[in-house]
Amino acid sequence: MAKIFASPANYTQGRGVAAEIGTHAEDLGGSAVLLADDIVMDIVGDTVTESLEDHEFDTETMEFRGECSEREIERVADQASEYGSDVIVSAGGGKALDAAKAVAERLDIAMVSMPTIASTDAPTSSLSVIYTEHGEFEEYWFHSKNPELVLVDTAIIAGAPTRTFRSGIADALATWFEADATYRSHGENIFGGASTRAGHALAELCYETLRRHGVSAVHAVENGAVTESVEAVTEANTLLSGLGFESGGLAAAHSIHNGLTQLEATHDATHGEKVNIGTLSQLVLEGKDDAFVEDVIEFSLDIGLPVTLADIGLDDPTDDQLETVAEAACVEEETIHNEPFPVEPAMVRDALVTVNELGERHK
Ligand SMILES: NC(=O)c1ccc[n+]([C@@H]2O[C@H](COP(=O)([O-])OP(=O)(O)OC[C@H]3O[C@@H](n4cnc5c(N)ncnc54)[C@H](O)[C@@H]3O)[C@@H](O)[C@H]2O)c1
Ligand SMILES: [Zn+2]
């Protein structure tokens, strides 16, 4: 199997860079549509439109309605096509970015990814996670390219609710464990290739960066402050995690997340929050030492991340519910089969109940 590494063409991060979008996007086209929900449009709409128009772009705006579903993608694509847009700029969280990636693929136009929260590693990737209208995970859509430009304004990131930043740390915390499992099993990354040393090393740097800067960065963001730790963790949550998972590979943590989305009770927990339960479950599944699992639980608590099932809305899960999660996590297409040993649903269920017990003990 060939080794494959791919990435966005350009990643730009810093305080105030939203106002420079016209400069960075200049070569990508001449007619842009900005996709964002109401909240995000209020935050970036004027700044982005002004900068694009200063650089000779015709600009339209469009409201994102909140779910990355096939229907929403179709609606946005039809409208963007009517506008004759050759660039889609998407601002917001993972769902808005994922929807825009699918639109860019469908219309064969350029994509600018502008995360306004550092909540997931979606901004840099070449895939979209597709949900039903009701928010259940449906499937991954793999696209032919990564976004042309990823633009991250750290002043906006630090001004967003801290919960989004914590969630991004959780999504990024999974990256190293999943990439390393894939590496050890000689599994496939998102591009259907083997991991490069680069993909593996970036995933490890992601983990080290979170451990060195995570706590300080969360405290800064609680106060809307941009410090060097906030810069480091934003980069880890967004760039290092994004490249690390795509070129390094996913494994159990994200399959368990996908399984958890089958239960409606978890829908108020963010992507990252559910992933954290997936990460801890993966460590138990892999039989990591007690001290190591406890260290990751303690770090999760320091950051303010879920360590029990109740923390993600499952106060008293029934056997049937746990069975549903475990079965969904182990379907054939799931990345859990990148673990270096065969995984059965019973093993996932047992890891989940064990994590729950360990998490309760540490609280
Ligand atoms: N494609 C990938 O590679 C990939 C990777 C990880 C996660 N995901 C997907 O990402 C999605 C989760 O994304 P998410 O956790 O970012 O949430 P989200 O996209 O569901 O919601 C983000 C919310 O935050 C709000 N928001 C955005 N910026 C804000 C700001 N600056 N201030 C205040 N509010 C703001 C938005 O209005 C929205 O309500 C899931 O669908 C997940 O599957 C995809
Ligand atoms: Zn994720």
Automatic annotation (TrEMBL):
Q: Which UniProt keywords are listed?
A: Metal-binding, NAD, Oxidoreductase, Zinc
Q: Which domain of life is it from?
A: Archaea
Q: What are the Alcohol dehydrogenase iron-type/glycerol dehydrogenase GldA domain coordinates in residue numbering? A: 8-154
The Enzyme Commission number assigned here is 1.1.1.6
Q: What enzyme category does the UniProt record give? A: oxidoreductase
Q: Does the keyword Repeat apply?
A: no
Which GO terms label this protein's molecular function in UniProt?
glycerol dehydrogenase (NAD+) activity; metal ion binding
This protein's record includes keyword Transcription: no
- List of residues binding glycerol: D121, D171, H254, H271
Cofactor(s) essential for the protein: Zn(2+)
| Manner of cofactor binding, per the entry note | Binds 1 zinc ion per subunit.
Residues at which NAD(+) binds? D37, G94, K95, A96, L97, D98, T116, I117, A118, S119, S125, L127, Y131
- Please give the family membership noted in the entry: Belongs to the iron-containing alcohol dehydrogenase family.
Q: What is this protein called?
A: Glycerol dehydrogenase
